[in-house]
Amino acid sequence: MKSRVSKAFGICTLAAMVSACGGGADMDMAGSGTKLAPTVWTSDGRATNSCSYDPRCSNNPHAPFIVQSGTYATAGFPADGATISGMVRLQVAGLALENVELLPPSGYAPRYGVFQLSNDKTHAWLDLDTTKLPNGPIAVRAAAFNKPAGQPDAVELTAMTPRTWVVNNTNPPVQELSVTAASAPADGAVLAGTVRLEVRGTGIANAELLPGIGYAPRLGQFNVSADRTYAWLDLDTRTIPDGVRDVRVSVFNVTQGQAGAQETVAISPRRWDFRNGVGTDFHGSVSVAPPHGSTLSGIVVLEVRGAGLRNIELLPPEGYAPVRGTFSVWSGSYTIGHYNFDTRTLPNGPIDLRISAFNVAPGQPGARENIAMPTRQWIISN
Q1: For residues 159 and 77, what is the distance between their CA atoms, to the nearest angstrom?
Q2: What string of H, E and C letters represents the secondary structure of the chain?
């Protein structure tokens, strides 16, 4: 992608994303008479500052396009010189992100991955499957653009300065995608409670429960074993409103955003009848979270979407203590919650966690629970 490269625009630009440049009161932009309120909310319920959206107020000629710099940027990537293996979550935060790519230190090919974007274009993530790379050093940078790939006159900002990582995978899994067995309720089944779905084969990098046709909404993401031969999902059927729904299970040879994707339908479309006594007033499932087995560092963004969400917690696989984190739920609609999971507060090593959503505030009676994210194991590496 050919683009114009721009550098950082000063301390006030970053600060304006969360607080007003010059105080908490409304401000007059350079005597224009236009007032800017301190906080505005994105479509996903994230707090930003209106100053960030105006070039004069923010001193950013490309406003609102910006990439967070300093501590925030480095929190989303392994350190320079780090040894990486398996699946590694990479993250970028900013405003008006239209495309984020993992690239060589200079130039635009080969492209190692394209980041997924949040609906409000403030957050981008890539689950880098290092088993697709040869062992040894790899030099990369991350670049953010204010236009989709292939569009002219794109402005480029550096999301991660060039650094070198050392890929070290022992016994990389077989790359060829195949399905040898699958287990799921039969066509016409009535589902309630928790149901286990399973797929066996080779080269499985990602497996998803999807509508019978198309790819949205994703109804569930499977855990995948390190050798890519087994994928499983303990589906809490309460995360899906009651009613008849056509579904399928598809497996892929790469994670989202990586080139060369192949799809195999592991469980052909079938019709299930969900009957939990759950209406459309309360349900929730994870929409952003690293896959099972991912290596995490710094601050990792987690997100749950649904309806009637009054409390969302990051919890151990069983029980309710200790609470590893409480999500911020957007009170404008109670349909989305976010949590910035600071992995630096935990010791390095594996940790098993689940995400549960509730229909009432903490401590209130009559709580109903959805397992928004069944237990996943993540590897903390800071």
Answers
A1: 10
A2: CCEEEECCCCHHHHHCCCCCCCCCCCEEHHHCCCEECCCEECCCCCEECHHHHCHHHHCCCCCCCEECCCHHHHCCCCCCCCEECCEEEEEEEEECCCEEEEECCCCCCCCCEECEECCCCCEEEEEEEHHHCCCEEEEEEEEEECCCCCCCCEEEEEEEEEEEEEECCCCCCCCCCEEEEEECCCCCCEECCEEEEEEEEECCCEEEEEECCCCCCCCEECEECCCCCEEEEEEEHHHCCCEEEEEEEEEECCCCCCCCCCEEEEEEEEEEEECCCCCCCCEEEEEECCCCCCEECCEEEEEEEEECCCEEEEECCCCCCCCCEECEECCCCCCEEEEEEEHHHCCCEEEEEEEEEECCCCCCCCCCEEEEEEEEEEEECC
Q: What angle do CA 302, 121, 113 make, to 5 degrees?
A: 75
First and final CA of the chain: distance in angstroms? 32
- Residue 91: what pLDDT? 93
- Rounded CA-CA distance 202/302 in Å is 29
Say which CATH topology domain 69-167 has: Immunoglobulin-like (2.60.40)
Fold of the 283-380 domain: Immunoglobulin-like (2.60.40)
**pLDDT confidence of 331, banded at 50, 70, 90?**
confident
Global model pTM greater than 0.85: yes
pLDDT digits 0-9 by tens, 281-294: 999 999 999 999 99
CATH superfamily of 178-274: Immunoglobulins (2.60.40.10)
Q: Report residue 195 as tokens.
A: 């149901």
User: What percent of the chain clears pLDDT 90, i.e. is strictly above it?
Assistant: 76
Beta bridge partners of 274: 191, 243
List every span in the chain annotated with CATH 2.60.40.10: 178-274, 283-380
Average pLDDT (270-288) is 93
